[in-house]
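Assess this:
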Amino acid sequence: RLLSPFTMTTNSSALKTTLITFALLLCGGLAFQSPRQATPLQRQQVPLLQNPLIDHHQAESTRFFASSSTSPEQENEVDVGAVAKYGLAILIQVSLFYAFFNLLDNVVAAAGVSVPFAANIAFFYACSLRSRIFNPLSNKRPNPSTLEAQGIAKRVMPSWTPPGVIFPIMWLLIIGPLRAVSTAMVYDVTQSYACPAILALILHLSIGDVWNTINNLERRYGAAVTGVACVWLSKANAAFQYSTVSSMAG
């Protein structure tokens, strides 16, 4: 018993949409380097090269390109290794979640119990906040006070950027609970943790975790722009999948 009769009817189209979103991530990540020009943003990064607290690898990663290559003849080449690394990390994370949810489905079916709605809310809240536990990359979140990873110099940000304290409030008190309640509603209908709709949320969380690696740790800001587009596409896909199960959850 992996999927209920309801989810079996929507399984094919839901999985196709999820796979298309995943393909968009891989294709979007194949961003080419533009010719390097001395833009104001790039000039602001130069002092970082003189900072003894930032090593050479970190300084190289401040460039606004998808590729980490620095030779002139490679300026227009794709960093295929990095794209493959990100795609593999997402695939591993989604696969591990699928295996874990499948195990839960089998345990619940064997026990013949009904999981309480409140218990699912707590479970999915934890999954939402700690999804990176299944990701092989480091997905550290930025420091709320600087909006940067620890030890990274603060970038010049737009004046309309919210204060750092707003971000943990949004994640802990608004976004996390909304994800938890809506996913618990989906489970109530499908009676399956490994249903396509919930896996669409896991794909979204996995893409977001890898984006944290790209933006906060590797500081590939050009690739991070493409990554944000993939995060939003996967979010829209998850909302659509939820709406096919429960209009309220979607």
Remarks:
- Residues 243 and 250 are 4 Å apart (CA to CA).
- Residues 80-111 form the longest helix (32 residues).
